[in-house]
## 1
Amino acid sequence: MAMGSGSGGRHDDDLGLDDGGSGGFNDINITPLTDIFLVLLIIFMVTSSVIVNTSSGAKAGLKVNLPAGGSADVATQASDLSVAILADGRLVLGGDVVSADELKKAFEGAKDKNPDTMVIVQADEGVSHGKVVEVMEMAKGAGLGQLAIGVRDQQK
């Protein structure tokens, strides 16, 4: 009895396989790939519920409960900075939570790129006036003199 190639004396020709001699799987298992896509879909759905799209040139990032008021709209440009102050006092710039030092550096960088950059402060109704003034003073300290306060439209 002659020893074969480890398949008990049978050849691939006998099994009906015509894949060039490899005895591997003929089908691709796509279940792990599907699982990964479903997990990514869930992650995107959860994170997209936090992000708010704005129609203006400045990016808001997170939804802030703005106070009502103001009849005059400010024309925004793509270079304008929008800073959101959340109810718990966190600062949000471009959708990312930043510290006061990072915000100062962003203001200084914006001043270097365009001295006419407008800073739009969008503060939650529950934020103290002092916190809003602090952010505005940071902007003025960096040399940005055009400041605006974001409000929501009044219901008529």
## 2
Amino acid sequence: MKTLLKVAGAILVCLVLLLLVLRITGLDPKGLRPGLWLTGNVVTTPVADWSFADKIMTVQLQTRTWYLLPHSVNIGCVYYNGYLYVSSVHMRPGVKYRWNDDVLRDPRVRLKIGNQLFDRTVTLVTDPAEKEAVLQAKAKKYSDAKVLSQNLTSNVFRVPEN
């Protein structure tokens, strides 16, 4: 029994040390591989114009998981009608986008655009007309006609100014 406790304690210490190292280094997402903490320069001032983000194809989004570790992913964004939007379009049947569940449960996110970090509380877009218009703007930006031609499940989130 004593040996089992020593082994469990050693494993726990190693996990804590690993999480500490990952917290310091960040572990940004790469490609389709999700990451943990995003690193960069935190912007605390309100953003009156998100149009600069529309020139960037991929941004990173960090969510808060139920198990207390952050989860970050690479996603697209679109600037439409004065607002920045992030969305998911479930194009791969059976693949669950965990970040959606995280944001629906807790809408506080961290966006990384370039090397800048923006802490925001996003809002789920429930108006069908606004959602459709944002998805059309996204399809135009990413030249993705599939987004419009199929009945795909999607969530659209509006990013506030501050």
## 3
Amino acid sequence: MVSGIVVALMTVPDVETGARIGRAAVEAGFAACANVVPGLRSIYSWKGKVCDDPEALVVFKTRAVLIKKLESLVRGLHPYEVFELVALPVVAGHAPYLRWVRENTIQRRA
């Protein structure tokens, strides 16, 4: 069963940036929760060069219909020229938790 809930992943340069963006997303109702995970090491290709940098990961729990709003909010706050924001569908989960996500996003606040 598809829940309409997604887990969205975003890398940031540090925990403080992740917390600032995560708080803004939750306060706006674009995510029910944002976990900021420190200690990430990212190895990636950028402008023809292989980079190896410390980062943090933000894990958002939200509704699929809110991803564009979340992306718009992040665009104004994220320091990267090209930032990662990918959403993975939640196909199943603990029903009370999924209900909580729905109840704590903007679609339910209206």
